[in-house]
Amino acid sequence: MERIWLGRPADEAAHSLVKAGYTVRMVPYAGRREQPGAEDARVMRCRIEGNTAELTVCKFVTDVMRDVE
Does residue 2 surpass a pLDDT of 80? Predict the structure, then answer.
């Protein structure tokens, strides 16, 4: 079950897990260099133990057309 959440929007994954009866804990992760415009939080890791889901979340730039205009 954990792999289906990888790469998905963090809020969407958390909402689905809460709806399924899990307690969700989000752990933010940031690299050494912050990406300008990185606003889209995505799930990088999901660990489920008992009824608790721990989501490691990282921000990405996913609106690539913004830079083209």
Answer: no
Element (H, E) at 37: none
DSSP-derived 3-state class of residue 58: strand
Domain ranges of the chain: 2-67
CA distance 27 to 29: 7
Query: And the tokens for 61?
Result: 């730039």
The 10s digit of each residue's pLDDT in 34-48 is 666 667 788 999 999
End-to-end CA, the chain = 39
Instruction: Tell me which residue has tokens 């260099």.
Output: 33
